[in-house]
Amino acid sequence: MSGDSNETARTGGQTRLRRWLLLDGNRWTVAGLLAGCLFGFFVVVGTLDPSPLRVVMTGSDPVETVFEGLVTGIITGVTLVVTIDQLVLSQQLATLDDHRSRLDDSLDFRRDVESLLGDVSPAEPAQFLRALLRETDARAQTLRETVTEGVAGERVAQFTREHDANADTVTARLDGTRYLEFSALRAALDYNYAYRVHQARRLRRNHDDALTDDGADALTAFIDALTLFGPAREYVRGLYFQNELVRLSRVILSAAVPALGVTVAVLLFVDTGDVPGATLGVSNLLLVVSGAVTLAVLPFLLLVSYVFRIVTITQRTLTTGPFILREGDDPEA
């Protein structure tokens, strides 16, 4: 087993910028960066164009055509947001029996976790995951102290040391996390769960004959605690996704109103003679039109920034079981 497994390879092969864009960056900041790049692109292309925008607008009106399409796009985007809201809300609308069944399932799972913890499980998602990791860490230590002889002892010692390093890092990141913050799910992604379960099960199969009864019980107890982390993380992920979709709807609706206002204002009031002069050698008309287009597409850029994070998390949590789906997730690859 490689020491690289101390950290999950879920971010392996990705640059810091890529990780920031897809996961770690504030979604408004990511959308602002995309908007800045788009604005710069329009200004550069408009400046390099041999036919200045002011000249083109005197013969035809491409700006009016573009902004008419943007008005339609913004209204369509708002309709999409309403559809997303309906999709999220539909998950909350159910019969009384359905709600009781969900509650029973949730309480059953909590009772399973509490039988491991020996105490009432935390109510906050982040602290719930932290408690599971701490219990798993404790059972890994018990396993290491119980199985000490021969090849099995060496394998267990190496495996549990790697597990502890990974679990301690994730637990420390969960310490300062509250409620349903993204940082809780982000920390949980850095726990290489599938690899840990696979290696623990392989230890049991390969060294079962060499383990004493106490060693076998310690390994089984460790696997029992370990396997509960996957469903817990997936449940927290589902709650986070619902919360994020509601937040996305609110964000897009908030950005759509000023975007629609700017778009309609350009259609009604901006003409070639209304914006004279230049700034730093760049036509003021070009700057105004480029800025207006950028503001008009801001709701779409916000949608892109949020979807980046949602699909990235989904890709990295496709399975609850001990399946290693990507080469980068396997430290032995």
Walkthrough of the structure:
The chain is mainly alpha-helical. The chain has one domain. Helices cover 75% and strands 1% of the residues. It has helices at residues 16-24, 27-48, 53-59, 62-92, 96-117, 125-146, 150-175, 182-189, 193-207, 213-269, 284-296, 298-316; strands at 278-279, 282-283. It has a two-stranded antiparallel sheet. A hairpin with a 2-residue loop joins strand 1 (278-279) and strand 2 (282-283). The longest helix has 57 residues, at 213-269.
Largest β sheet strand count, sense and barrel closure: 2 strands, antiparallel
Number of strand segments = 2
Instruction: Point out poorly predicted stretches.
Output: 1-13
Biggest β-sheet: strands ordered side by side in the sheet: 1-2
Q: N-to-C SSE series?
A: HHHHHHHHHHEEHH
Overall 3D shape = elongated
Nearest-integer average pLDDT: 83
What's the structural domain tally? Answer: 1
- Secondary-structure content class: mainly alpha
Helix content: over 70%
Topology:
Layout: H1 16-24, H2 27-48, H3 53-59, H4 62-92, H5 96-117, H6 125-146, H7 150-175, H8 182-189, H9 193-207, H10 213-269, E1 278-279, E2 282-283, H11 284-296, H12 298-316
Antiparallel strand pairs: 1-2
Helix pairs in contact: 1-12, 2-11, 2-12, 4-10, 6-7, 6-10, 7-8, 7-9, 9-10, 10-11, 10-12
